[in-house]
Specification:
The protein has 151 residues and is α/β, with parallel strands linked by helices. The protein has helices at residues 9-32, 47-50, 100-111, 125-137, 147-150; strands at residues 91-95, 115-120, 142-146. The longest helix has 24 residues, at 9-32.
Length: 151
């Protein structure tokens, strides 16, 4: 094995160039990571005060509940979620998506570009129609399948 520890002029100049480049670039990168691009006088939106907060009035519904009868209405991303087309050309089947997490998933899939088929209980048809309308508003195909036909 060779233990050649000699430094050539080429290696020395190359190393000095790397050190010099790091010295110049590091402050620029560090400056890019600060939050100085936000104009003074405008604060970022505070998520802790953006939405309705408890206590909520007591409300009951027979199972399964309807989103349309909730007060305040929960946010499933109807207005807040912005998609980016990651699922363009895809298709999705989501069960139980007329309310709750399924509803949020159906909205997100449509906003990401997927055509969506949903499955719902006949008693929740009103909410299912809302979800289909939201899917179609995104320019996607939306199909609602009632459990009465799924048996």
């Amino acid at each position: 094995m060779s233990t050649d520890n000699t430094m050539s002029r080429r290696k020395a100049i190359g190393s000095m160039g790397a050190v010099l480049a790091t010295t110049i670039v590091s402050p620029a990168l560090a400056g890019g990571l600060t939050n100085t691009d936000i104009p003074s006088g405008t604060a970022p939106e505070d998520p802790t005060t953006k939405y309705v907060r408890p206590p909520f009035k007591e409300q009951t519904q027979p199972w399964p509940g309807l989103v349309s009868k909730m007060d305040p209405r929960p946010d499933h991303g109807e207005k807040s979620y912005k998609g980016s087309g990651r699922l363009k050309g895809r298709k999705a089947l989501i069960t139980g998506d007329d309310s709750g997490m399924g509803r949020a998933a159906a909205i997100a899939y449509a906003r990401e570009g997927a055509d969506v088929a949903i499955n719902y209980y006949p008693t929740e048809e009103e909410d299912a129609k809302e979800v289909i309308a939201l899917i179609k508003a995104e320019g996607r195909k939306g199909i609602a399948i009632s459990w009465r036909f799924a048996r």
